[in-house]
Write a structure and sequence with these properties.
Layout lengths: L8 E3 L1 H8 L4 E4 L2 H6 L4 H15 L3 E8 L2 E4 L3 H9 L3 E4 L1 H9 L3 E4 L1 H11 L3 E3 L10 H4 L4 H7 L4 E4 L8 H10 L4 E4 L18 E3 L2 H13 L6 E4 L10 H17 L7 H12 L3 H26 L2
Parallel strand pairs: 1-4, 2-3, 2-7, 5-6, 7-8, 8-11, 9-10, 9-11
Antiparallel strand pairs: 3-4, 3-6
Helix pairs in contact: 3-4, 3-13, 6-8, 10-13, 11-12
This protein binds pseudouridine-5'-monophosphate and manganese (II) ion.
Manganese (II) ion (MN) binds next to loops.
Amino acid sequence: MTEQTPDTVRTSPEVRDALAAGRPVVALESTIISHGLPRPDNLRIAREIEQAVRDAGAVPATVAVVAGTALVGLDDEALSVIATSDDVVKVSVRDLGVVMARDGHGATTVAATSHLAALAGIRVFATGGLGGVHREARETWDESADLTTLAQTPITLVCAGVKSILDVPATLERLESLNIPVLGYRTDRFPGFYLADSGEPVPWTVESADDVAAVMRARDNLGLTGGIVVAQPLPAHEELDRALHDRTLADGLQAATDQHVRGKDVTPFLLAWFHEQTEGASLTANVRLVLHNAWLAAQIAGSFAADR
Ligand code: PSU
Ligand code: MN
C-alpha cells in the first residue's frame, strides 16, 4: 500500500492512537449522514451511531472528505459540515481524487469509506445497507462500485443486507463472482434491510463475533485481501410492516421512473421516498439497524484485536 501523505488522508489522533495500541476501531460511512438520513435528525443520529460504537468498547472512525482532505475520524465540526452543508457531494471511489483535488466536501459511500479506512489500517466497518445491483441493471448497467471495491479491499463490512430497491438475487450472485463471503449473523437468510428476510438464503451462518474474527484471520493467512460482508437482520419486532414496505417500494420505483431519476441519485431518491411515505417508520427501522450493526462491528473489532 502506498504511503499516505499527512495532508491527503488525515487520521484523527484518537483513531491513530487506538490503532497503534491495537485497540478496536470501527469505520463508519458518511453518505448515510448526508444523503441517507433526513435533516435535521441526521446529525443527532450520526452522533448516536458513534456513541453506540463507544458503548461497545471501540473507537468510531467516521470517514469523509472535508475541504479536500480525507478524514478518518471526524471531530464535531467536521461531522456538522457533512450533516448540514449543502455542498457535500456523494463520493464513491471514482470521485475521491476529483473532490480532493478541488478542495471539496465529500460524503463517502461504502466503497470510498472502505478504501480510506483500509488505508488507515482499519479492518471493521459498520453501516446500514450495502449498495448492489439495481433492478434494471440489464439495461442500465447500474451496479454499485461498493461491490467491486469490497472485492479488493481488506475490510469486514457489517450491514443489514441490501435494500429491496435493488435486485437482491443478482447482488448475491455478483458477491459470489467477486469472491466476497457473505456471513449471516445468527441467520441463514440474507436480510432485506427494513425486513429481516429478503427471501434469499446466505451461504454461511456465524453465531458470534469470535466466529467472524476467526474467518478474518483464516483469510489473512491465505493471503486473501478482499472484504467480507457480515449481514445482520433487524430483530422481528423492529421490522417495517411488510404490507407498508411492499406498497412503498412499488410506488417509489414507479416515481423514480416517472421522474427520470438515474445513476447515483437513485439510492438517495428512494431512501427519501421511504422516509416520507412511511411517515418516519422506515427512519426508525433504519436507525435501529445501524445501531445494531455498530454494536456488532465493535464486538468483531474487539475480538479480532484481542487475538492478534
Ligand atoms: N443503502 C442504504 N443506505 C445508504 C446507501 C445505500 O440503505 O445510505 C448509500 C451507501 O453509502 C452506499 C451507497 O455505499 O448508498 C451506494 O450508492 P450507489 O448505489 O450509487 O453506489
Ligand atoms: Mn449506481
